[in-house]
UniProtKB/TrEMBL annotation:
CDD domains: GGDEF, PAS. The keyword Protease does not apply. Residues 260-312, 430-480 form the PAC domain. Keywords: Coiled coil. It comes from Pseudoduganella flava. Residues 186-256, 352-407 form the PAS domain. This is PAS domain S-box-containing protein/diguanylate cyclase (GGDEF)-like protein.
Amino acid sequence: MNEPISSRDPRPPDEAGRVALLHALQLLDTPPEPVFDRVTRLASQLLGVPVTLFSLVDAERQWFKSRVGTPLTETPRNISFCTHAIAQDAPLVVPDTLEDPRFAANPLVLGLPGLRFYAGVPVRTAAGHAIGTLCAMDTRPRALAAAELAALEDLAAIVADEVQRREQMSAARDHLHTADVAMRATQERLRSIFELASFGIALIDMQGRWMTVNAAACAILGYSEQEFRQLTFWQITHPDDRAVDKAAVQEMLAGRIGQYERQKRYLRHDGGAVWVHTTISLKRDDAGQPAYFIVAVIDIQARKEAEQQLAALHADLEDRVRARTRELQGANERLTAAIASQRHAEQALRTREAQLTSVLEYANDAYIGIDDTGRVIAWNRQAERTFQWTADEAQGRRLEDLIIPQEMHAQHERGIARFRATGEAVVLGKRLELPAHRKDGSALTVEVRIHATRIDDRVTFSAFLHDITERKRAEAQREHDIRHDPLTGLLNRRALAELLPQAQARSRRHGIGFAVLFIDLDGFKAVNDRLGHEAGDELLREVARRLRAAVRANDSVVRLAGDEFVVVLEGQPYTLAEARTVAEKLIAALVQPVAAGAGEAAIGASIGIALHALEGELDAAELLREADRQMYLAKQAGRGWIRPLP
């Protein structure tokens, strides 16, 4: 690992000047700083990789100013990936290190930690020197999407801006450091919430003008953020809904209510109306005076994908970075103004934190914060409504004591322990459907998205949960209706097409055959003609009940169509004699008179039998056709016959 640097270790043209500038910046061998740690954590979350670094490339080593997912603080330069990244203008992306001749024999690839993926963006000073990289690494090969690479470049630009500001503001660094770290923390937290939000969020001033609008709101209503700023809340509210909204706003201004929610219509950019579920809350300042409204909007006609939210939030983050850069450049010209700027930043921080708290508190998804021991540290109002526990009741309790079913406790505890030991978790960053239960013990199904954040070697989890119980119930009912006859409740032809191949597979697995009985009712048409269709339907339901009662629980009864039924006999090695015995039992059950409509009906049945043998077997369609053919022969012989004969 300490052999001389080979010709495969590229050096920038002005290596001596680059290294001298790196040492002059006084970044090497300094303690971790939140301003960089937030960027590496955000890069890890956005790209879904276990390791992210802000690496500084010294003369003969690379040292990690900020790191996520590795205990190492430095490595020799002659085995580093980053020394290749700083030698080129474009980002360096290695989808699979074993496929790249520059890195296939690298000890960091062949040994621990077994790197298989690398993406690094050079971090440059104002003079253009690449002093290091912002890089992301994984132990699995992977492809990097264009949006992910753009996000990594944007985050590297933030790091570069901070480095360049340190070149320009060494005199003001101590005075502005606290305010700068706090502001960046607020920006990153606010951006994370916006990225996770699947609903529209907006702030409206007291004149009804749109102050801030996220991408979801833009997607729902079709306006750009600039177009929103040229409109008022009332201009895009449907005329029929304005009176109710105005009355509710007056109630909030009078202090009688703090928020209201309802279903209403907005006017889209294209002129059409869209139904939304909206929650509007009034935010007051420290003096208790109305300051602005917070509006949350869910599109109940069509939902948009999260990429639109990310694009708007990305643009918003760039605006904030540019604004912050202008503030710091102004502070460099007038050091005495730094204290006033710091006070202003602290006030902005309190405002942003209040906005963040309001967004979380009034989100339409249940939001739960969990520490690395599995105990609740945050529980919003929607979580109270969804799971019936108040925030005070939930605070400090383990999640499995609140919403996780008993049978999943062990799995949850193993997942927490595995993450604490290895930093790996299969549920992070995915959209999952999981069972849960409420305080009263009732069950529900939730859609869950979980993200992990590591701060000072401590991990917290942010979970957004949405109740999808009704949706899953509707899906299950649709699946049942597809495979069952609506009149009799028996399995239908589609279910039979799935059942027969499954029965054949079970037959081969257990080494026993089974029998298929094709049943056609005798005299049903006469009953239908004499007593009417309603009586005929009543008769068919009674036939279904008798067939089901006459066979065993593991046998299947199917209504094909009209007065044709199929019974599949399984669970024992059926012979023709045994199958005929069941068929005779079915005929005996069906010939008993049935009360139908205003009269009484007597019917019979003709039955054809097909046996599934283990050798020379028919396929499912041929087996059914053989049973149908035998039934036809029985029908020709007269009422109540069974074919084939013994």
